[in-house]
Amino acid sequence: MAIYQFKGRNAEGRLVNGQVDATNTDAAANQLLGRGITPVSMEEQVVKLSLGEKFERATNSGKVESVELIMFARQMYTISKSGIPLVKGLRGLAASLRNYTFQQTLNDIVERLETGVELSTAMRSHPKIFNNLFISMVSVGENSGRLDLVFNQLSEYMERDLSTTKSIKTALRYPTFVLIAISIAMAIINIKVIPAFAGMFANFGAQLPLPTRILLAVSDFFVAYWVYMLVIIVGAGLWFTNYIKTHDGSRWWGEKKLGLIIVGDIIERASLARYSRSFGLMLAAGLPISNALELCARAIDNNYLGDKIRGIRAGIERGEGLYQTHLISGMFTPLVLQMISVGEESGQVDTLLAEVAEFYEREVEYDTKLLGDRIEPLMIVIMAGFVTVLALGIFLPMWDMYSIQK
Questions:
Q1: Is it the case that residue 359 has pLDDT exceeding 90?
Q2: 272 pLDDT exceeds 80?
């Protein structure tokens, strides 16, 4: 697709100009004639691209960020509510996008729509951009005639989900940087600093203190085998990355994440907030409970909890109630279970699930604000231990030398 700058005359003979998005000049002229405009001149707009953008277009390796999907859902809500035809609205959106990958995706969807394919079916051809939850919700909106409501719900859901994810990442940024800095400092000290003192200690000619001997042994090991250690660390990282992509590995890591010190509870509550929000959203849209639970299991991004949700679905299919299946899963607190029970009895499960999601989101927001205060003492202890061992190992023999000289 290309953008053409045109000049033409409308039905009244007045001169008009503007831009049109089309595959070639003939297609652009046909579009203008369809609007009642007779083209006089037409020039293709040449877009200047950076080196990164040229590489991205050549390899089609661009990504669509969550923020862009949120904006897309909001714009689609406006288009659907205002009654603008989907093809026309999507063409306009594609022409205004800077993300080449997303632009090409929307253009492909438009072409599929023009052949009579439904919007959800066209989106299903791009699973890397539109997940199962997104596509299923769009399908429900098409069947119910409330596509505008569905896009509005999707934008709110993704915005809340992104906000929770950003809060957790922000809270973990400081301790991550500190640990990386300590690791780099340890490597430099063991490889460069301690060997410089080793020669001086060797001339000392006496029995060195235990902390010093430990430091020298560790330093010698680093100096002799740092290449092998680097290879092992990189290899272990690659193996771990590939392992957690498997079903068993992702399930194991999903369970271990929930047991991490300090952050495990926050990750668990954030996951349960996502489950409650997505489950309530799909029930409100009219999706069958069994299908909604399967989509929630995929959307929660934790195979360990996903298997538990599939256990809930299996219980529902056996005829058990929501309260009973959620109780057996062991995922929820008594307060949340009571809210689910009330929602089931009153027929307002979707509303109560939204309340459950807000309950978890408030807890996550509160805990992420306090996360820095909880991690800071641990970081201080780690740094104090590191400095203490280093100081004892280096300064104890120096104090002994000073005592002998006196």
A1: no
A2: yes
Q: In whole numbers, what is the pLDDT of the chain averaged over residues?
A: 81
Decide if 316 contacts 293 (C-beta within 8 A).
yes
Mean pLDDT of all residues in 263-289:
83
Alpha carbons within 13 A on the beta-carbon side of 391: 6
Judge whether 14 and 32 are in contact, CB under 8 Å. no
Domain with CATH 1.20.81.30 in the chain: 63-148, 149-406
d(CA 100, CA 50): 12
Question: In this predicted structure, what is the pLDDT of residue 206?
Answer: 60
Measured CA to CA, the distance from residue 19 to residue 7 in angstroms comes to: 9
The band of 82, judged by pLDDT with boundaries at 50, 70 and 90, is confident
Please give the distance of CA 160 from its chain centroid, rounded to a whole number.
12
Query: What single-letter amino acid sits at 307?
Result: D
Topology of the domain covering 149-406:
Receptor-associated Protein (1.20.81)
The matching CATH number, chosen from 3.10.20, 3.30.530, 1.10.3470, 1.20.1330, for 2-46 is: 3.10.20
- DSSP secondary structure letters along 287-355: --HHHHHHHHHHHTS-HHHHHHHHHHHHHHHTT--HHHHHHHHT-S-HHHHHHHHHHHHHT-HHHHHHH
**Tens digit of pLDDT for each residue in 376-406?**
787 788 778 877 877 777 777 766 665 555 4
First to last CA, the chain: 86
CATH number (3.40.50.2000, 1.10.645.10, 1.20.81.30, 3.40.50.12780) of 63-148 reads 1.20.81.30
Q: Residue 382: its pLDDT value, please?
A: 79
Q: If residue 19 lies in a helix (H) or strand (E), which one and from where to where?
A: strand 15-22
